[in-house]
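Note to self: the last two entries modelled the partners one at a time, which told us nothing about the interface. This time every component goes in together.
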Amino acid sequence: MFGKKSVPLSFLIFLCLGMSELSAQTQGLEIGNIAPEIELTSPNGNTITLSSLKGRVVLIDFWATWCAPCVQEQSELAGLYKKFNKSGNPKGQIFEIYGVSLDSKKANWESGIANMKISWIQVSDLKFWRSPVAKTYQIQELPYNILLDAKGIIRAKNLHGADLVQGIANLLYQK
Amino acid sequence: MEFHTTLKKTYDSMKIKIFLFLLIAITVSAYAFNLFSSQNGAEPWTQQQLLDPSALAKTIGNPGIAQPIVYSVGPQAVIKGSIEIGPTVVPENLSKLQQKLEKLPRNSEIVIYCGCCPFDRCPNIRPAVELLKKLQFSNFKLLNLPHNIKVDWIDYGYPMSE
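The predicted structure of the combined assembly is written out below.
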């Protein structure tokens, strides 16, 4: 009797779990969604996809050299990158920044990267506000960022300053 | 005699009324002027010099309307038919704009836009507007893009360059 009932019950539980797993795998822009794919090229012409960074905690940083507050924030990001990118993480989850530039001129973008000594991933289609990525991610203003966990799921949006440091630390060092 | 006193009283009270009226009028207009200048005094353009994007969108390509000369003074000439100057925060680009403007009649219909950032953070529009004023252009407008070219132009589906 008990056995017979428990089979459909466990099936139901399994189904529920499966469905919650499924909803987490929906692509979208809400917290808990899988971040939409980005496929753009680096200054040297290599295509780097966002999905290739799965397994790492990723900050997608939308910026441009023509955006003064974005440029200002790059030095803060450099500090974060140095702090979180490599060692000192017991779980071994590595932190990465995926910098998406809305620049329109390659020369400006490249000199910006060089001047600010940006060492993390940089990609762009050099299409300014016409970039399809700006549309996909419904970006309304710069700077803008999205924080992903190691599964590529959106965990926070548009964190800056101390909130950003805390947000990254939470993801890297959670249980 | 009594009549004269009454008249004098009326006259006196009228004087007081006129005085009070003038006092109030001066106070109100001084306040209004102060408000006006604190709102607009900080920017080199006037409210009348701001052009609504929907108005420009309707004008572009309309054979019945005289076409303004539209200059992009920001990172990219997104608007259809606009001329790319480059960010006028860069002195070379500002001189490039000056060279183009100097050849034009001062009553030419000119529209400038940037659209990188909200107006308060845009480094390009102010030098361009100051230049137009310095050269005494009488018929120029600044395209009113309070957010950026994406939110205020592209997202509306307004005409874009190739």
